[in-house]
Write a structure and sequence with these properties.
D-Maltodextrin-Binding Protein, domain 2
Length: 298
């Protein structure tokens, strides 16, 4: 009697899947290579072997970027689930005590621009810790910390007068943002897009315009930086933004356009008086993320 033995289904390598996800999320082999600490050629070889293993094409490549094929989109869902389950399983053995909920506060600009990538990386390392995020103005976040309704908070602070609360983890300069090839800065009175009272960006912008005798009007008032950005890109107004928030569809405006220079501001980390291990883990992850942001910006 002859027994037919089927060839075993090949196993997917987690490291290769991690590279695959990095490419899918960045749209670039070189950027993904930096994220997974490999050379671009090594990353290309990993994907080539993965495509050969599955017998399908996963990426469409052009000169500037890559995009997922239909098969690639299907694999992306599986890859994320496999990596999440792997991280969770390993953490149960090497970090069994690190579990719980950490309450984190952040202003809208940090919540939109920086927190998603920070928390995504954190969840991969500490799947047992859940982070509940509250997005609010810095002044309200400080009050929540005083009332012990938050464990950690990231707040925007003026560099002068020198505040005493919290730990400085990043300093950034404010600039005037206008639409690329826009004309809003030429109008009189100057249309500006700002937040409500209590926002340090608003305070600095209005103070500098008044000191320079530049007439202005608040053309767009929003508590959300995405809405302010829409006003800028549409050339409805200009706005005070962190320099790192300037994108290709914007331009930095300054003295050549008759606008006063703006000051810098600090991003500070407030921590609870009683620090648990999960809170420390989140705080350290935030510090490391901003150290990397500073390194890249240098």
């Amino acid at each position: 009697m002859t027994i037919s033995l089927r060839r075993p289904i090949p196993l997917l390598d987690n490291e290769v899947l991690r590279t695959f996800v990095a490419i899918a999320e960045t749209g670039n082999f070189s950027t993904a290579a930096d994220a997974v600490f490999r050379t671009p050629s090594a990353v290309s070889m990993q994907i080539k072997k993965l495509e050969e293993q599955l017998g399908v094409i996963l990426f469409l490549r052009d000169a500037r970027s890559v995009s997922l094929t239909q098969h690639g989109e299907m694999l992306l869902t599986y890859a994320r689930n496999i990596l999440a389950l792997s991280n969770e399983a390993v953490s149960r053995f090497i970090m069994p005590e690190l579990a719980g909920v950490v309450r984190l506060g952040a202003p809208d600009d940090i919540g939109e621009r920086l927190l998603p990538s920070i928390l995504k990386s954190f969840s991969e390392s500490y799947p047992g810790i859940m982070v509940d995020v509250t997005v609010d103005m810095s002044i309200n976040l400080k009050k929540r910390m005083e009332e012990q309704r938050l464990d950690l908070a990231l707040i925007n602070c003026s560099t002068k007068p020198f505040p005493t609360e919290g730990e400085i983890i990043y300093t950034e300069r404010l600039v005037w943002a206008g639409a690329k090839c826009g004309t809003a800065y030429r109008r009189d009175p100057l249309p500006i897009s700002i937040w409500e009272d209590g926002c340090i960006w608003r305070s600095d912008a209005i103070t500098k315009l008044e000191q320079n005798g530049r007439p202005f009007r608040i053309a767009f008032l929003s508590a959300h930086t995405m809405a302010q950005r829409a006003a800028v890109v549409s050339d409805l107004a200009i706005a005070p933004f962190p320099r790192s928030y300037i994108t290709d569809d914007m331009r930095i405006l300054g003295t050549n356009e008759g606008l006063p220079d703006l000051t810098s501001f600090d991003i500070r980390l407030l921590t609870a008086s009683q620090m648990t291990d999960p809170i420390r883990a989140v705080a350290n992850s935030i510090r490391e993320a901003f150290m990397e942001i500073a390194r890249v910006a240098a």
